[in-house]
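In response to reviewer comment 3 from the previous cycle, which asked for concrete evidence that the modeling workflow produces usable outputs, we include below a single protein chain processed end to end. The sequence was submitted unchanged, and the resulting structure tokens are shown without manual editing.
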Amino acid sequence: MPEHHLWAPRAWIGGRWENAVLLGVDARGHWSQVQTGVTLPPSDARQLPGPALPGLVDAHSHAFQRAFAGLSERRATDADDFWSWRDRMYQVAQRITPEQMQAVAAHLQVELLRGGYTQVCEFHYLHHGPQGQPLTDRARMCQALAAAASLSGIGLTVLPVLYERAGFAQPALRDDQRRFSSTPGLVHQLMRDMQGLGQPLVNAGVAIHSLRAASASAITELLWQVGDADVPIHIHVAEQTQEVDDCLAATGRRPIELLCRDFAPDARWQLVHATHTIPAEVDAVAATGAGIVVCPGTEANLGDGFCDLPAWLRAGVPMAIGSDSHVTRNWPEELRWLEYGQRLQRRQRNVAAAPPREPATAARLWQAALAAGGRAAGQPVWGIAPGARADLLVLDERAPALVGIAPSHLLDALVFTGAEPHWREVLVAGTTVLRDGRHADQDAISARFADVMDTLWSGL
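The workflow returned the following structure tokens.
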């Protein structure tokens, strides 16, 4: 891609709107120049058709669960919770093939681009074939995700997952979990396989499913193999109260307390969900430099509970967002759920705001997610800044939810008044992948997804 220039009437830079912004894109698809106040752009600059925001990282995804979204919203028994949902979700986990995974992931990734995400972190634990048989190519399922990304144009961080047991008191996997089986050696090798793919928009790290699903010895071995490599390390932790209770019963400690004591997380680590905490655990995470990833849409859908948002914000812990099970697939909705959950719980408004320095709720949450997301994806620089990948979301000010909104309040309206984002264009690495809300291959990608859904759910 040759070097070129873009010009935006306004752009979100360094936590605020700046006017008349000239952006240089180098041959690698990264920002080479960011200059504000350029009222007369050079003749070779393409003028963007609206204000520009950086793309956001979706820091937690299980792509295959997109094939289950909307299909678990009925109850046939006296109670329904995360654990009963999980058992039903395994119907997809047991059956989906690599080819079907690619089709589902490509459809999802186009939806995520439409939702304002330009990078997605895939917490990937389907290592083997349907029903658990070994695959000839150990990386085939990971490769399906990368192939989908090459179709959609989204950036992808693959996080192969260490998963070896069903629970603290269950040293083996259940039959319906046998596809998830992995060892530290397999996880580390899958990471290396993905790093060696040669796709410029694909990188990799590692993940640990949870403290209940991996033994202390296996976690220690994986961390030894990773060593000092600057790669993201993700783990589910403290999502459910039962998980907390089980961890206390098995170890005498709460999950985040145990993690911080025994495994010395650092700035590479991302604690996914971190829903059920006590103040000492928030302080412990802050002291390590690790970040958290909250997934408000999924956490609401599964009845997980509310995180202690004010405590995490006060402690300055980096906080990215994720779409997890993909019942929601755009970041304005995730931020809205995050704030509204706190309002309902506390019977207050603008809980996340911090006047006088940060009086705008949407801006504070957005900036937090933006700053933390790049690190969660293993990106050394993220946003509209020299050296960062040239990802942009170009707002459509003609959209009904944004008409008449003062420029200073565009982000507020985008998060709190719109049903979905409104983009004129979405760019990844300087290339336009969505124009007027559509992907060039959207119809074909959607048709393949529909065929997969028919096959997966026929007769069920």
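The radius of gyration is 21 Å. We consider this sufficient to address the reviewer's concern, and the full set will be provided in the supplementary archive.
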